[in-house]
Amino acid sequence: MALPATFEELIAKAEALKLYQNLISQLNKDLLYANIDLEFDQETLPSSLKLVMHEAVFHLIQNKFSDYLNLLYQVDVSETKIRALDGDDLHKLSEEVTFLILQREWQKVWYKFNN
């Protein structure tokens, strides 16, 4: 499986396979397990999903770093990928981390669907 390289590609694949709601469910489950007070409605638009997740990750990095690390652990985002990001611009970093989280969640959903 080739991972989507952009948010738009990820959403297009999820919608084409009718797995967008599964992606939301998986994300909600991992947010709950990581004790992050955030839950998405099944009808959340992709643009809203991206925006709210980005804001949440940005807030976690700035104010609740241990919760941020816990979320990365729960979602199982590759530590190597996180370390490869440039941390000089927190806004850009949080955007890239948000994509890595969604990309990993998509990977989980895709594997469940195909097994």
Shape: globular
Helix and strand string, N-terminal first?
A: HHHHHH
Number of structurally distinct domains = 1
Question: Hey, roughly how much beta strand do the residues contain?
Answer: under 5%
Q: Approximately how much helix is present in the residues?
A: over 70%
Number-wise, the strands total 0
- Please summarize the sheet with the most strands: none
Architecture overview:
71% of the residues lie in helices and 0% in strands. The protein has one domain. The two termini are 13 Å apart. The relative contact order is 0.19. It is globular. It contains six helices and no strands. Helix 2 packs across helix 6, helix 3 crosses helix 4 and helix 3 crosses helix 6.
Summarize the structure.
The protein has 115 residues and is mainly α. The protein has helices at residues 7-16, 20-33, 46-63, 65-75, 79-83, 90-113. It has one domain (7-113).
Task: Give short descriptive properties of this protein.
6 helices; 115 residues; mainly alpha
List the helices and strands and how they pair.
Blueprint: H1 7-16, H2 20-33, H3 46-63, H4 65-75, H5 79-83, H6 90-113
